[in-house]
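Weekly modeling sync, notes
Attendees: S.R. (lead), two postdocs, one rotation student

Agenda item 3: backlog of single-chain predictions. S.R. asked that every request posted to the team notebook include the full sequence so nobody has to chase files. The rotation student volunteered to paste the first one in as an example of the format we agreed on. Action items at the bottom.

Example entry:
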Amino acid sequence: MSGFGSGPSGGSWNGAGSTASPGAKGPTCDKSAQNYCSDYESCHCPDDDNCWWTTCLDSVAQVIHILDEIEFSLCIDKARIWISGCSNGGIFLYELAKDTRIAHRLAGIIPIVGLPHNGFNKAPLNTMHFLGIWGTKDTTVPPIDNDGGDSDISAEKNGWYYTTADAVLRLWRRTCSAKLDIPSKEELSSGKMTCSKYCSDTSSGQVMGCFFEAGHYCSKSYIWDQIFSFIQAWLTTFINTFDSLICSTYRFVQNLVSPVVYPLL
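Predicted structure, as returned to the notebook:
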């Protein structure tokens, strides 16, 4: 699924500092960074400080609309709603985790090669699972400190500043009861990925960070192997039979009245 709003590379997602610079730690980019604000009709560029680079439309509202459509059209377990995203989509997930309109509906988020901009590293609004996956050689959204100053900042090759993966993991660990857990490290997917687990109490939400020795990639098979393994290991075993029955009955009656299925475009 792509974000909305026309731009230089099509749709995009607005969040985690992409159109909110300057933030708590100042501008999210260097003065030399390319200014994309004027590429988006939705942005009021006189407010821009040269660091806005996505649509300024409400991307959270877009996701809520789609989720509402899915819940209306299909019988799903509302306690098992996970969202993953790559690159800009991964950056945007941090916005969903702290937004009062949707955070409570999510079981967990899984950002792939995505990190919040510097100054926009915010704790989730409520307990949820977190799996972050990053490439150690990524120069587009660098997960490791390369700024030479603040160890929580990484600098992108074209001038944008991000929060390091280590800083994100430290913050998310504070949201679970097992704050002082010593991370357990293990090699996964034939040594292609190294992960650290935190917060073993499932009621608190598990936190895991994984690194692979490559750049800004989303579609490597070992990435998705780890994602599905993570979700399956922590799925709630309880199934709400009553809600499932109500949902199924409603859909049966609905189809009798209106058997036409409208695809989500």
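Discussion: group reviewed the output briefly. Residues 113 and 134 are 5 Å apart (CA to CA).
Action items: rotation student to repeat for the remaining queue; S.R. to check formatting next week.
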